[in-house]
């Protein structure tokens, strides 16, 4: 009896030790992961709040928090307020136009059956691999001819074309999951195809459209390559180009304080959006592969 | 709201696209073949005019000796295959640019997929509350814009005042003269890899998690009853079941890591002063816009596009596994 009891006890302790070990590994994993994810963001935030005297210290929080870097970002020659305005205009215009176009295409590809449907889908998907660097020279020439250099549309239009392939693909996967029987029902009740789409389907599609729209917005907000060529002056520079143009006191010294402060300004809206729409973004990411 | 399934399995591209798709009244719609094309017209027009037409122009430019003079005059100046001959016989391509592009992509993709998969496995083992919190943190990493993230990593590794230098100096690994991480190819790309993996693994993590959640519990339980340990369960059950998901995240990561631009270009030296660290994208850009040698720059761009095209074909095959392309 004692032997059996002893073995049983030993078994449970072993099992308990197993789970304790497992949860220890999971706990350590979470700590390391959260550190890796948040450390760069935290260091950016902390550095942005340190004055010139303190910035070189490796303290993990600002001893004497100051907004001097933020004043430098928005004042003087940097005038980052313009860049924020430009980026908002460009990203919103891109998102609105791309979504309207993508909703039409996504509907056609998900709902209608026609010859060449999969071929179109494959072509669209193939276009999402396009390297921006491959078409930046022709775009620069075309936009020079059209007088578009330093204008918003020189960034909005390429952003749309880069966002469209993946937007169409993600929307198509979302639209395929829709309860299309409801559209049939609306048709039976006397709605035309357009009426049925706008009254029944579009409201149900809002989550997918919002998700895709967020991803397009992020992509437009982060675009650097094309903008660095077609946007010359502060009047049209988006945040990415403006940030890269910040000048230091000397040629070889980077203005890290103001770069970090501008980085916070650029990143915080995205972080807020991500946390607000976490579930939507997760489903959109796994549906189409935005980065 | 506390529903633990964060990702609808159907939202996964591989399973959604790979599934046969019979809309209820599919056959009757075939009578109006005009409608789908009308709906597709705006999208296809934008893609055609702004992606495919410029690509054609790049190919056309790559057969020319196109410099500043031609930009001003607009006259073409054909030189046949000269650009490609010059490009492919340039030891710089084989010694520096291609290794930088390919070795970096292999390492970064490996790191991204391995870390993303580990994080997905970790997330699966968590309860709904912790899972939401950790995914939130992971998405913060994803939300950091590439340009901003790059400057943060530059700052962390700054030669004079960077965090890493101070930490290493404190423990005596670096002398008072410091260490310049950005001049050496290897340490330069180690930082780029850190940056890219940080930005790229969240996508892999949430996508693989979505795949993991579609694996029927009975499958794993059966393997456990048969005495398979966690390692065996992962390789014998998990990987084969969601192989398409792994294929898609690996191929997409490869495409992205081949065309990395801002994360190299904005680093110290990456913008042109240190050719040792160029990859194909940066080389093309510098050739075109810094050296006004648009023809050669275009030839480099065509080479990059061709390489991506090959990878893309693999991607399409992974996505459209069973469906024929009609």
Automatic annotation (TrEMBL), chain A:
Q: Which Pfam families match?
A: BPD_transp_1
One GO BP annotation is: transmembrane transport
Q: What is its main location?
A: membrane
What InterPro entries does the record tag this protein with?
MetI-like, MetI-like_sf
Q: Please provide the record's keywords in A-Z order.
A: Cell membrane, Membrane, Transmembrane, Transmembrane helix, Transport
Membrane topology per the entry is: Multi-pass membrane protein
Q: Which residues form the ABC transmembrane type-1 domain?
A: 84-277
Alphabetized CDD domains for the sequence: TM_PBP2
Entry keyword annotation includes Magnesium:
no
Look up keyword Heme and say if it applies. no
GO CC terms for this protein? plasma membrane
Ranges annotated as spanning the membrane: 21-43, 88-110, 119-140, 152-175, 196-218, 256-277
Indicate where this protein resides in the cell. Cell membrane
- Similarity field: Belongs to the binding-protein-dependent transport system permease family.
Family annotation (PANTHER family)? ABC TRANSPORTER PERMEASE PROTEIN MG189-RELATED (PTHR43744:SF12), ABC TRANSPORTER PERMEASE PROTEIN MG189-RELATED-RELATED (PTHR43744)
Identification of the protein by name: Sugar ABC transporter permease
What species does this protein belong to?
A: Marinitenerispora sediminis
From TrEMBL, chain B:
Q: Which Pfam families match?
A: BPD_transp_1
> Where do the record's region annotations for Disordered lie?
1-27
Question: What keywords are assigned to this protein?
Answer: Cell membrane, Membrane, Transmembrane, Transmembrane helix, Transport
Q: Which residues cross the membrane?
A: 37-56, 102-123, 135-156, 186-213, 234-256, 294-316
Q: Which GO terms describe its biological process?
A: transmembrane transport
Q: Where in the cell is it found?
A: Cell membrane
- Topology class, membrane: Multi-pass membrane protein
What cellular component GO annotations does this protein have? plasma membrane
ABC transmembrane type-1 domain spans which residues? 98-315
InterPro entries noted in UniProt:
MetI-like, MetI-like_sf, UgpAE/MalFG_permease
Which family is this protein grouped under?
Belongs to the binding-protein-dependent transport system permease family.
PANTHER family registered for this protein in UniProt: BLL4140 PROTEIN, DIACETYLCHITOBIOSE UPTAKE SYSTEM PERMEASE PROTEIN DASB
Name assigned to this protein: Sugar ABC transporter permease
